[in-house]
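INFO batch 0412 | record 1 of 1 | parsing
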Amino acid sequence: ASSSSSSSSSPFDRFAAIPPPPSPRALQKDQDNYCGFSWPDAASTCGVPCPSGQDSECAALLPDDAEEGQPYDYKCYFFTGCGAKIEEEQQQQQQQQQQQ
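INFO prediction complete | emitting tokens
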């Protein structure tokens, strides 16, 4: 009579603790954090990046043309799409330089 083991171990169990790789979108998250007076402002100007995602990072880098009383509204906004916009602009500039 053979005895069968009731354990359900698999040779692949050792890989269960390995986290999945981050998605490309997750890798770009910090590239999409930009400072602005509102989300539309941050997303359209793409002027001052705030990779840490902290509002204090923006206050320290307040633009010179900011009006008095506005610094407290100058915050870090996520998912602005600036990473992709800036990358696209850089590619276009490189293509233009290569054509010259």
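INFO post-check: Confidence is low (pLDDT under 50) at residues 22-27.
INFO record closed
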